[in-house]
Amino acid sequence: MFSKVLIANRGEIALRVIRACQELGVRTVAVYSDADARAPHVREADEAVHVGPPPSAQSYLLGDRLIEAAKRTGAEAIHPGYGFLSEREWFARAVREAGLTFVGPPAEAIEAMGSKTAARQLAIRAGTPVVPGTTEPLRDAAEAAAIAEQYGYPVLLKAAAGGGGKGMRVVRAAGEIAGALESAQREARNAFGDDAVYVEKYIEGPRHVEIQVLGDRHGNMLHLGERECSVQRRHQKMIEEAPSVAVTPELRARMGAAAVAAARAAGYENAGTCEFLLDRDGNFYFLEMNTRIQVEHPVTELVMGVDLVQWQLRVAAGEALPFRQEELEPRGWAIECRITSEDPSNGFLPSTGRISYLHLPTGPGVRWDGGIEAGSEVGLYYDPMLAKLIVHARTRELAIARMHRALLELTVEGVETSRDFHLRVMEHDDFRRGDISIQWLEQHLPELTGAGASDEEKLVAAIAAALVADRVRGGPPRAAAGAANGASNGAAAMPAPAAG
Ligand code: MV4
Q1: Are 180 and 158 in contact (CB under 8 A)?
Q2: Mutational pocket test of ligand 1: of 131, 273, 277, 439, the residue with most ligand atoms within 8 Å of the beta carbon
Q3: How far apart are CA 198 and CA 156, in angstroms?
Q4: Would the CB of 200 count as within 6 Å of ligand 1?
Q5: N or C of the chain: less Cβ packing under 10 Å?
Q6: Would you say 190 and 153 are in contact if contact means Cβ atoms under 8 Å apart?
Q7: What are phi and psi of 337, to 5 degrees?
Q8: pLDDT of amino acid 179
Q9: How far from 121 is each of 131, 160, 190, CA to CA, in Å?
């Protein structure tokens, strides 16, 4: 094992990696910008290196400076976390060329999965199902119309260089295709400097289901089942769970084998994720591979009993995976809610300020992966995700009840957060039945955000929720704090699950 690792990240994921290192007896080097001089990840690491001013382009994204810091402090490896430099093929290569170990996949695997169309072609060669469609750029509207006719409407025009839904257009009839092609090309050119657009059959109302894979340097490639990530807004996931209500053991085995085949074809090592769309008939289609540890990895850790970040470090150090695929089966149910500094009742507007008070949920089956503490300044330089609240229980129904209870225990004062939004989702009948798709959140925004409620309704809701929260918590009255949080209106209506 390494004796010292540099963590090229901040916030909750930096702390997550530090914890894994500590359990492995590995010393840690944190890096920090001026904005993070007093951040928890800096204090918890054995050493810390200042890398620049707050903007990430002048700090956390300066690969050469991070590699220099690793060499100077005697770190043998760099863990990139997620975001920042985690999926930059040049950084993985530069780390290797500096004689250090990149805790992640080989640069070549990042590159192979980096372009959407290249990943799609790689999946096709591996026998992994992809959405029916083409990969070659469309020449003109006539060609687009001919191909669309072949697959049948609706079709989806997609930018080859795409990401985050940019350069995507749904086309429902032949008459719309010329205009849609033109606007998709224009958007792709502006966003990516590349106007190549291709056609796929449009999948209506699918779920977003992704498969976790883990590979070592000895030819072992395993999957660790699925995560369901359908509760998302504008390509930002809000809630994830494992397993998925839509996945049977038989489907899990088929999706897992398809993900492993795609990962093998890319020469993959370490932890990675294959994203799929799962349609209402149980057909699944590979979309892309994320070549990093993901935000939502804890739900997999809890149901599979595997510490993914520890294994990232172990396989990067050359250890072989000791698991057999047959013994990797999900146990119970895990749910994660992303606690962000956004105001759901105000269009998810980012909220800034100083965390003046923080009360964290605890108790059976509750995990808090956070990057903040009382006194933390929340600014606009970095991602608004403050922490993840994760629960594990025997059944999905019990996990929902546990998440609801844990959210009621949580108090964050000083910034607006997504807490009350999550309470409303946990109380929603569709969510409780598992009747969700990638469109669900955006179709139910008014009832989930309280945005449509009058000030009077909001006040009544806040008082009711504060009373319930105090009864649950058993602490002194905190009605003012609850009202300031604009707490959930449905807290009292949470149905009790069957005993377990
Ligand atoms: C699709 C699709 C439906 N049909 N492709 C969105 C971003 C990109 N990664 C792929 N995306 C989609 N591709 C076909 N043929 C619907 C989406 C999509 C989506 C996918 C995953 C998670 C959230 C999503 C939200 C909107 C659309």
Answers
A1: no
A2: 277
A3: 8
A4: yes
A5: C
A6: no
A7: -115, 130
A8: 97
A9: 11, 12, 25
E strand segments, 320-382: 333-340, 342-343, 349-350, 353-354, 357-359, 366-370, 377-378
Give me 345's structure tokens.
Answer: 């009742």
Q: What was the pLDDT predicted at 461?
A: 67
Residues in the chain predicted with pLDDT less than 70, given as ranges, are: 452-458, 461-462, 464-465, 468-493, 498-500
> Catalytic residue positions?
292
CATH 3.30.1490.20 fits 132-201, yes or no: yes
Residue 469: per-residue pLDDT = 59
Q: How far is the CA of 104 from the centre of ligand 1 (A)?
A: 26
Ligand 1 atom closest to Cα of residue 201: 15
Domain locations in the chain as residue ranges = 4-103, 132-201, 207-489
What ranges in 152-296 are assigned the alpha helix state H? 177-192, 249-265
With a 6 Å cutoff on the Cβ, whether 156 touches ligand 1 is yes
Residue type, 59: S
Q: Which residues contact 70 (CB under 8 A, 6 or more apart)?
A: 6, 29, 77, 78, 95, 98, 100
Rounded distance, CA 345 to CA 342, Å?
A: 9
Look-up: residue for tokens 């009839």? 173
DSSP single-letter state for residue 3: S
Distance 159 CA to ligand 1 centre (A): 12
Nearest CA to ligand 1 atom 14: 202
Q: Please, are residues 116 and 162 in contact by the beta-carbon 8 Å criterion?
A: yes
- Model pTM above 0.70: yes
The CATH code for residues 4-103 is 3.40.50.20
User: Looking at domain 207-489, does it have CATH number 3.40.630.10?
Assistant: no
191 Rama class: left (phi>0) / alpha (psi -120 to 50) / beta: alpha
